[in-house]
Amino acid sequence: MRTVQKKRFLILNIDPFIIMMVLVLATISIVAISSATYTDDPTYVNKQIVWYVVGFLCMSIFLLLDYKILSQGRFLYILFGFSVLLNLLVMVPGLGVEVNGAQLWFRIGGFQFQPSEMMKLILILILAKVLAEKKGHPWSDLSSLGRICLLFGVPFLIILAQPDLGTALILFGILLSMLLVSGLDWKWFVSGLLVIGSIAGSVLLLYVTDSPLLHVILQPHQVKRIQIFIDPASDPSGAGYQSTQAKIAIGSGMLHGKGFHQGTQAQGNWIPEPHNDFIFAVYAEEFGFIGASILICAYLLLIYRMLVVALRSDHLFGTYIVAGVMGMFVFQIYQNIGMTIGLMPITGIPLPLISYGGSSLLTQMLAIGFVVNVGMRTQTDALSF
């Protein structure tokens, strides 16, 4: 009887708002991908539906497991080592698949698997374990601080070498969000921002002065992205094509949009990677400012509910997990929409829960599963709004 009551409590404690927002975003994703691939390959819609079904199944199965078990023993360290190994192997010629100058995927049958996506979740879990063990005070000794730096630095440098700057930056966003929750002194935070700003300023100075050193520290395509970020009009039909066409599409959508399957930029195949990196431009063109606002509001409500779960969690391990997931989502949303409207450089980061993708979508669904898991096992009444 007690087991039945416990299961009933867990089910009642599932946050319905998070599930609702995921369903809203899933619907928007299917609609946007349908528009993005309407004149090219309509099978992408069916594939995305399948990935969502698989994602919900994986999330549902994971909810049966108490997330606190993962904080025990050395299982996460073994999983971390395995993930690091996969990210190294994917760079070996003949093993990994190269696309657009980056060797990031394994091909298994008709599917492609990106090991760096798995690393996002594993990094969140292992950092949460370390921070929880130190009771939220990792700054008390150098050994703990060194362990955090090592756990972050190894995958960060490996993924940066693949090269996958976008995912590497997401890992940094995850680390930053978790350290802030752990009580990082604002002086350290401001100092870190100043260091990052100095590095970015130095890179821009090297670019402006056309220094040969710039081509030593950056890949040619990365140098080109800096150029296009500063001045997209310098190569509107070449490297600046993506940014230019995306902004034209978003601007032409105006208030109400052009209508479903009626976007001239989208249906005319003017937008590159319309079902993936630049799907926001497709959606904004056909559904306008109102549609884009609904999408952003859905994201805001999802993040807000994650924050509620983090604040009410009665276990530090769970709090840090949710903080890491929030950092991952916030950074990806900001970077993707920012690069689409020209506020951020193009890095190839997909829009969470909207862009087409197998590895990325499953990672995001499992991440949300962790958040729901933490919320449903918080020993309070069911979460209110």
Automatic annotation (TrEMBL):
InterPro entries: Cell_cycle_FtsW-rel_CS, FtsW/RodA, RodA/MrdB. Its EC number is 2.4.99.28. It is found in: Cell membrane; Membrane. Pathway: Cell wall biogenesis; peptidoglycan biosynthesis. It is a multi-pass membrane protein. Its main location: membrane. Keywords: Cell membrane, Cell shape, Cell wall biogenesis/degradation, Glycosyltransferase, Membrane, Peptidoglycan synthesis, Transferase, Transmembrane, Transmembrane helix. The chain crosses the membrane at residues 12-37, 49-67, 74-95, 115-132, 144-161, 167-184, 189-208, 278-304, 316-334, 354-376. It catalyses: [GlcNAc-(1->4)-Mur2Ac(oyl-L-Ala-gamma-D-Glu-L-Lys-D-Ala-D-Ala)](n)-di-trans,octa-cis-undecaprenyl diphosphate + beta-D-GlcNAc-(1->4)-Mur2Ac(oyl-L-Ala-gamma-D-Glu-L-Lys-D-Ala-D-Ala)-di-trans,octa-cis-undecaprenyl diphosphate = [GlcNAc-(1->4)-Mur2Ac(oyl-L-Ala-gamma-D-Glu-L-Lys-D-Ala-D-Ala)](n+1)-di-trans,octa-cis-undecaprenyl diphosphate + di-trans,octa-cis-undecaprenyl diphosphate + H(+). The keyword Ubl conjugation does not apply. Belongs to the SEDS family. MrdB/RodA subfamily. Peptidoglycan polymerase that is essential for cell wall elongation. PANTHER family: CELL CYCLE PROTEIN, PEPTIDOGLYCAN GLYCOSYLTRANSFERASE MRDB. This is Peptidoglycan glycosyltransferase RodA. It comes from Laceyella sediminis. The gene is rodA.
